[in-house]
TrEMBL record:
Its cofactor is thiamine diphosphate. The keyword Transmembrane does not apply. GO terms for biological process: pyruvate decarboxylation to acetyl-CoA. Its EC number is 1.2.4.1. GO terms for molecular function: pyruvate dehydrogenase (acetyl-transferring) activity. The keyword Oxidoreductase applies. Keywords: Oxidoreductase, Thiamine pyrophosphate, Transit peptide. It holds the Pfam family E1_dh. Residues 59-352 form the Dehydrogenase E1 component domain. This is pyruvate dehydrogenase (acetyl-transferring). PANTHER family: PYRUVATE DEHYDROGENASE E1 COMPONENT SUBUNIT ALPHA (PTHR11516:SF60), PYRUVATE DEHYDROGENASE E1 COMPONENT, ALPHA SUBUNIT BACTERIAL AND ORGANELLAR (PTHR11516). Transmembrane segments: none annotated.
Amino acid sequence: MYSRCRLNLVQNALNIFKTNYSSEANIKLESKFLLHNLDKGPSEEVTLKKEDALKIFKNMDSIRKFENSSAQMYREKVIRGFCHLYAGQEAVAAGLTAAMRPQDICITAYRCHGIAYVMGATVEEVLCELTGRASGIARGKGGSMHMYTDKMFGGNGIVGSHVPVGTGLGFARKYTGKDGVSITMYGDGAANQGQCFEAFNMAKIFQIPVVYICENNLFGLGTFCARAAANTKYYTRCEYIPGICIDGMDVLAVREGIKFAIDYAQSGNGPIIAECVTYRYFGHSMSDPGTSYRKREDIEETREKRDCLKKYKNYLTSCNLFTPEELKAIETENKKKTEKASQFARTDKIPPLEELNTDIYVKALEPVRNVSHFKPLAHINSNKFPLTP
């Protein structure tokens, strides 16, 4: 009996040691994937390494914090014009980039702050772009809807217009023999655009390596998706392109689903559609209170029961990768960084008037006589953001 007690104590001690020092975890997803024209989908058993888990959490928490800060700056009229916030949808952005490879590229719509951040922009660059300052990712000229990085081709303001562009990016990959796929993101509202179906058709004819991601946040502007679409199962809407439906509030499901889609497209199978069902906490834009077409109770219930950050934190603590205290420390650090970036975005310098003539073409036009009445400027981003279609 004494020996057995000692054995139990030793085992408990080992378990505590393992709990404190877990470097990876095997996790059973809470949600299931729905398939269209596919015999097999992603695994619902995932492995999560601690360093990957940390990066995903930092990305999600940073987006949440700087989007909340953006909302406050808009209310103070520090940010003007259009402002489409990503709060609530963080799992899609973080899961997407956790699945992408270095050779992959993406393009998205106007709700692009979170995507720009996970694709390489800093919090300062995002917030300065929103306030129209010189340190913005597009030097203050793009604003909320037009942000870019070297592998992110926008931020595009016209609904659905970028879907053919994303298809073209994938075509360029195939035509030039380069590895990598084009991640082309659009919303449930844009899914009804005719140009989307034209792009789907071309992508399938040429077997273009493109992953179409439909971010279905349930509302297009102020219209519930069922009032605008005869078929709201967006992943099934193309009979000749397979699809997969993903819980967009579960970042690990997004990661595994997009990994599967990338592998499918890269293997010569052509395009695939991945629908991520998610939810936005703010209105369509900051000019929309977001409560005339949905109940406040529904928003609060989603925040309480389906919030992607809460769900992910539960994964991390229950599988012993992080303690609640460790996650709290990360949140505190992100809050400080966001506050600092917000202050900088309020006080950074205004772009000079000469900036009107830069970034129009790949090579600046200023050296051409009579093109510009302003002092010539070099194309500042030509080396920082080389073209990689």
